[in-house]
UniProtKB/TrEMBL annotation:
Residues 1-149 form the UspA domain. Pfam families: Usp. This is Nucleotide-binding universal stress protein, UspA family. Belongs to the universal stress protein A family. Transmembrane segments: none annotated. It comes from Alkalibacter saccharofermentans DSM 14828.
């Protein structure tokens, strides 16, 4: 097993996936790829056209802030691999989270995807069920998936 992909989002289940992925990578001497995907789906658009006055600057600010947050999350997560720091790569992508994970796994020939069963949106009753991203990934990716709960 040469490459282990661990998609992360900062959730509790993401941290559990990091720990399990680290354990597997140590055992096999695998390279770890920490992947963070930022969903850029803006589902609610303002109805007042005056808010679009300086929309380009606003969007650029939002994207820049998101890039910073993603970089911080990836660097903080990489610190959990202090004893194998040189074996960890970080990747930040923008797009549909599940599709981006699947595409990355397929295009980069990973051997295993270690994925938390739920992400940041899992609260209350939703937390007891399989998350929508995890569900989509396990049904669409052709690579082995270890789901951590």
């Amino acid at each position: 097993m040469k490459k282990v992909l661990i998609p992360i989002d900062g959730s509790e289940f993401s941290s559990l996936a990091i720990e399990k992925g680290k354990e597997i990578a140590k055992f096999f001497g695998s390279k770890i790829i920490l992947l963070h995907v930022r969903d850029l789906n803006f589902s609610n658009y303002p109805s007042d056209p005056s808010v679009f006055h300086d929309i380009t600057a606003t969007i650029e600010n939002i994207l820049a802030e998101g890039d910073k947050e993603s970089a911080i999350l990836l660097e903080e997560s990489k610190k959990k691999f202090e004893d194998m720091f040189d074996m960890v790569e970080t990747v930040s992508l923008k797009g549909n989270v599940a599709s981006s994970i699947v595409d990355y796994a397929e295009e980069n020939d990973v051997d295993l995807v270690v994925l938390g069963s739920n992400g940041l949106g899992a609260k209350g009753i939703r937390g007891a069920l399989l998350g929508s991203v995890a569900n989509k990934v396990i049904h669409q990716v052709t690579k082995p998936v270890l789901l951590v709960k």
